[in-house]
Amino acid sequence: MGRKVIIAGNWKMNKTGAEGRALVEALLKEVASFDPAEVDIVVCPPFTTLAEVRPVIAGTKVKLGAQNVHWEDHGAFTGEISAAMLKEAGVEYVIIGHSERRQYFGETDETVNRRLQAALKAGLKPIVCIGELLEEREGGRTEEVLRKQIRGGFAGLDAATMAGVVIAYEPVWAIGTGRTATPQIAEETQAFIRAEVAALFGADCAEKVRIQYGGSMKAANARELVAQKDIDGGLIGGAALEASGFAKLISEALAK
Ligand code: PEP
Predict the structure, then answer these.
(1) Predicted confidence (pLDDT) per residue in 115-149, tens digit
(2) Which is deepest, 42, 102, 161, 228, by most CB within 10 Å?
(3) What's the structural domain count of the chain?
């Protein structure tokens, strides 16, 4: 059986509670005809908007995600949120290691790994982001960078657990820039990521693990990207902030 497509919207620091509620209300109408057996649809609002979005999507095909999680259960970690708190808030998925967290908030492969372990322990479904900077790609270091992120970020996991983790490959130069990786570049890189997973966790795990592409994905390019053998969906920023465009992107991804 093939891997199920997963499309997740990362709202970043956008949408108040009222705005978030309006967005998912509109989204639910737009995705009414989609088959949940074919696609996992996830929205990841800011922490304060989770409570507003939760009742609107409860029991529907749209699932709730968060944008970060801390590795400790509780304590003096001002500004952080624990996995248990996310579970209580009805969260199912959590984004870990987004490039904006790596770039602006000192996230490292080691902290990604700690957050990942905590999320898994609590039964959250992690979406772990990896990706190279523009100068790293231009310097021919993409594979070296990704290998390090994979080895560090996924250290200590067993193959069965790793198979349930979603990897989001997001070339940093394509995020929010309007500059998408070509389907060929994205596929070539994601095939490399899958091969690395195979080397570390075995071929069976690599065959199961879902790898999203992220970076200026929109309705106009989703079909060609998700049609690639090693692209199993998308992590979407800007194009997830408006219901009809996001739904169109999902339908394009499914039309692959
Ligand atoms: C992201 O933030 O994960 C992302 C891919 O953003 P955008 O779609 O806006 O490039």
Answers:
(1) 999 999 999 999 999 999 999 999 999 999 999 99
(2) 42
(3) 1
Residue 219: pLDDT band by 50, 70, 90 thresholds? very high
Its domain, for residue 244, covers: 5-254
Rounded Cα gap, residues 71 and 86, in angstroms: 12
The CA-atom distances, in angstroms, between 17 and each of 9, 89, 148, 161, 239 are: 16, 14, 38, 33, 19
Specify the ligand 1 atom closest to the Cα of 239: 8
Rounded to two decimals, what is the model's pTM?
0.97
**Catalytic annotation on 98?**
yes
Query: Measured in angstroms, how far is the CA atom of residue 208 from the centroid of ligand 1?
Result: 24
pLDDT tens, residue by residue, 101-111: 999 999 999 99
- The residue whose C-alpha atom lies closest to atom 1 belonging to ligand 1 is 237
CA–CA dist 81, 73 (Å, integer): 9
Q: Is residue 74 among the annotated active site residues?
A: no
**Of 98, 136, 187, 252, which residue is the catalytic one?**
98
User: In this structure, what CATH number is given to the domain that contains residue 202?
Assistant: 3.20.20.70
Ligand 1, atom 8: nearest CA belongs to which residue?
237
Task: Compute the distance from residue 76 Cα to the ligand 1 centre, in Å.
Answer: 31
**Which residues are paired to 126 by β-bridges?**
94
Residue nearest to atom 4 of ligand 1 (CA): 237
Taking the CB of residue 144, how many other CB atoms lie within 10 A of it?
Answer: 12
pLDDT in tens, 183-201: 999 999 999 999 999 999 9
